Amino acid sequence: MASFPPRVNEKEIGKLLLNLVDHTEVVRDLTFAPDGSLILVSASRDKTLRVWDLKDDGNMMKVLRGHQNWVYSCAFSPDSSMLCSVGASKAVFLWNMDKYTMIRKLEGHHHDVVACDFSPDGALLATASYDTRVYIWDPHTGAILMEFGHLFPPPTPIFAGGANDRWVRSVSFSHDGLHVASLADDKMVRFWRIDEDYPVQVAPLSNGLCCAFSTDGSVLAAGTHDGSVYFWATPRQVPSLQHLCRMSIRRVMPTQEVQELPVPSKVLEFLSYRV
């Protein structure tokens, strides 16, 4: 069986290696498993996610069904055990990627959900929606821990479910696990802290569509509808001892195991992300 990616010489660089054909509609997003397994998940307007094994010549391993409308985006948890997919009709789904089964549907948004991202320790999930909100979730319980509103006062569910000039287009977690960036139709890029419900920094940006932090978290790149990419220096703040402890312990055990540690309740509270 041929390995992927195959060994190529310089003359073959840029050559098409695989063409994965099975979706019946536009493919909106792609994400690789972070564990290096070469598992790829594709999200499509055909209401499905498809799991591909690129080590096996792109064999399609599984079709994940559950969305009733377009799937806009998907993201793996850092340990590759969980996948989040978001889409039209308020959809936020979590999937077990060991069993390829749905874990739960997260309820809370009032409009299409278009972007998602896990925190670097996998303990938090950020979702962005046309309802003018970014939610920070505990993906292991389904609880909303924080709401970042892009319209004040917050719109009622009826207004949030319709057209407005505050649709949130993108959200991204910084690699420090402390900051989140969001782009909205109000021509702004916002930087948030996960423990504060107001932006710590705001900058102008027209036609923002997508954003991503650099690996060291010092720069945010944002792409726009008009074909430009802009860059910002990101907020640099010293994290608290609590945040460092929460991040550190999750490098060696998942959130579920943290909650089961035989330690005093005050210690568990200190190590937990809570509202």
From TrEMBL:
A Pfam entry, by short name: SOCS_box
Pathways involved: Protein modification; protein ubiquitination
Entry GO terms, CC: cytoplasm
WD repeats: 20-62, 64-105, 106-147, 168-202, 212-232
InterPro entries recorded: SOCS_box, SOCS_box-like_dom_sf, WD40/YVTN_repeat-like_dom_sf, WD40_PAC1, WD40_repeat_CS, WD40_repeat_dom_sf, WD40_rpt, WSB_SOCS-box_domain
PROSITE patterns: SOCS, WD_REPEATS_1, WD_REPEATS_2, WD_REPEATS_REGION
Organism: Bos indicus x Bos taurus (Hybrid cattle)
Function, in words: Probable substrate-recognition component of a SCF-like ECS (Elongin-Cullin-SOCS-box protein) E3 ubiquitin ligase complex which mediates the ubiquitination and subsequent proteasomal degradation of target proteins. Recognizes type II iodothyronine deiodinase/DIO2. Confers constitutive instability to HIPK2 through proteasomal degradation.
Every SOCS box domain range: 231-275
Protein name: WD repeat and SOCS box-containing protein 1
CDD domains reported in the protein's UniProt record: SOCS_WSB1_SWIP1, WD40
One Gene Ontology term from the biological process aspect of the record: intracellular signal transduction
Keywords: Repeat, Ubl conjugation pathway, WD repeat
